């Protein structure tokens, strides 16, 4: 079998991310009352933890809102370091994982440099690389039958002359973590290759935005590999995407290389206060993970019964294979006409035949299952009519 080719995204025209349509835009375009719009495209959670309402009602924020937030986010840093089991100088706060990824790009992807993106994966790695005027080296992941896991050999080879390697586990949008030991051995191999070549090993970013859903993390590897930066967020399992808080965790020396790029106050006092409390009292997060666990199989089974091919996942989203881009596009339209917003993959994307769907609460998931049944019944009717017409 010939190896899948590695491709290059050139920096002359940065890949851009097209932001998702807002609820208002979807409502206007598909003629749906705005209250009926339900987002299955953003991998968020149906409701924030209960403590948020109390904190907001109390108005007791860490510092007065008339002042700037403390520029070192001290309480949040101390609390998060305790939760993740790291030293305070091994952690850096940003406005969501997205700002953290951007800071990593600024610190480690030089103009004219190279960054490895095992695809399909989270779109921002390529966007950030190309915004820096660097080249994206796209290494295809293995196929669906192999859980879209990394092609370790090809990733290692591409890393040999890269500045940054962007990894994501569990991977968005494919939903599975790398097999046990895979990332550790890739890090070892990259370190060994760098030593032989007499060069500094590339920075390896490990985006663990969905780690809480699997209940494990590779944070410990930072002790052996000071080129590793782990990224975490309050947006997913903690159900606080609107607050925009994320973290970089790495050896103190590596954090010190990112810190100069950090703006002094991109995380608001309200966000800092609420996320500190949510980290201290993780009951909301634990309940959210339990909800996703309970709904994952029920939703997958319901969609399979309706006739959709649902891939395995450990996260709060499903990847549905609709066998071809046309059926994927028609299914997306069918969902949108019912007020349900899927994540689509367009423009030659390797997952153009798929839709990604967030696992929501029971009522929301029931709406999705009912819509899938209707869409498939319509499709069967149309196929019958086409057959009769021939
Ligand atoms: C893999 C991955 N990384 C980062 C992010 C961005 O997270 P945040 O809301 O913390 O910026 C997302 C959001 O979908 C994601 O899926």
Structure description:
With 390 residues, the chain is an alpha/beta fold. The protein folds into 2 domains: 9-47 and 283-389, Aspartate Aminotransferase, domain 1 (Alpha-Beta Complex); 52-280, Type I PLP-dependent aspartate aminotransferase-like (Major domain) (Aspartate Aminotransferase, domain 2), CATH 3.40.640. It has helices at residues 23-30, 51-58, 74-84, 96-108, 124-131, 152-159, 182-197, 211-214, 252-258, 269-280, 283-306, 325-337, 362-389; strands spanning 7-9, 38-39, 91-94, 114-119, 135-140, 164-168, 203-207, 228-233, 246-249, 309-310, 317-321, 340-341, 343-344, 354-358. The chain has an 8-stranded mixed beta sheet with strand order 1-5-4-6-7-8-9-3, sandwiched between helices. Strand 6, helix 7 and strand 7 form a beta-alpha-beta unit. Helix 3 (74-84) runs parallel beside helix 10 (269-280), helix 4 packs parallel to helix 5 (124-131) and helix 6 runs parallel beside helix 7. The longest helix is centred in the C-terminal third of the chain and has 28 residues, at 362-389. The relative contact order is 0.16. The model has no long low-confidence stretch (mean pLDDT 95). Pyridoxal-5'-phosphate (PLP) is lined by residues 43, 96-98, 122, 168, 172, 207, 209, 233, 235, 241, 246.
């Amino acid at each position: 079998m010939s190896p899948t080719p590695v491709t290059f995204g050139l920096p002359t025209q940065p890949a851009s991310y097209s932001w998702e349509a807002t609820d208002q835009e979807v409502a206007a375009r598909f003629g749906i009352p705005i209250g009926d719009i339900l987002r299955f495209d953003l991998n968020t959670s149906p409701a924030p933890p209960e403590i948020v309402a109390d904190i907001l009602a109390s108005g007791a924020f860490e510092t007065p809102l008339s002042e700037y937030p403390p520029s070192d986010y001290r309480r949040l840093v101390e609390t998060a370091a305790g939760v993740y089991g790291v030293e305070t100088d091994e952690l850096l706060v940003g406005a969501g994982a997205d700002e953290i990824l951007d800071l990593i790009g600024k610190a480690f992807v030089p103009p004219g440099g190279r960054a490895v993106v095992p695809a399909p994966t989270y779109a921002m790695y390529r966007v950030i690389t190309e915004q820096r005027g660097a080249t994206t080296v796209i290494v295809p992941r293995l196929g669906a039958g192999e859980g879209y896991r990394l092609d370790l050999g090809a990733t290692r080879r591409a890393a040999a002359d890269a500045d940054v390697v962007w990894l994501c586990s569990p991977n968005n949008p494919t939903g599975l973590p790398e097999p046990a030991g895979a990332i550790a051995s890739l890090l070892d191999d990259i370190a060994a290759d760098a030593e032989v070549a007499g060069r500094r090993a590339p920075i390896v970013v490990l985006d663990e935005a969905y780690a809480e859903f699997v209940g494990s993390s590779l944070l410990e590897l930072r002790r052996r590999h000071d080129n590793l930066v782990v990224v975490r967020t309050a947006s997913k399992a903690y159900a606080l995407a609107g607050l925009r808080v994320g973290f970089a965790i790495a050896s103190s020396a590596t954090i010190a290389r990112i810190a100069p790029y950090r703006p002094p106050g991109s995380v608001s006092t309200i966000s800092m206060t609420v996320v500190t409390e949510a980290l201290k009292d993780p009951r909301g997060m634990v309940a959210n993970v339990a909800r996703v666990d309970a709904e994952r199989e029920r939703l997958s089974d319901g969609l399979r019964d309706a006739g959709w091919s649902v891939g395995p996942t450990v996260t709060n989203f499903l990847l549905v294979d609709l066998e071809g881009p046309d059926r994927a596009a028609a299914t997306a339209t069918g969902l949108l006409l019912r007020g349900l917003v899927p994540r689509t993959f367009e423009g030659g994307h390797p997952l153009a035949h798929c839709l990604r769907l967030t696992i929501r609460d029971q009522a929301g998931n029931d709406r999705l299952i009912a819509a899938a049944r209707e869409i498939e019944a319509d499709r069967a009717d149309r196929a019958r009519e086409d057959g009769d017409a021939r």
